[in-house]
Amino acid sequence: MASYAEHGSRAGGGIAWFAHIGGFVAGLVLIIMMKKPGGKRYPKKWK
Prior knowledge:
Layout: H1 2-34
């Protein structure tokens, strides 16, 4: 039984790894999509 439980935890770890990678990629895509045209982050008075 212990080996079965251990095997199940390894399989779940792989799914979590792909979920983290997918979240990272989705975040990058959303940042690129929501970026304002022109590219300036701060008003000129901050320089």
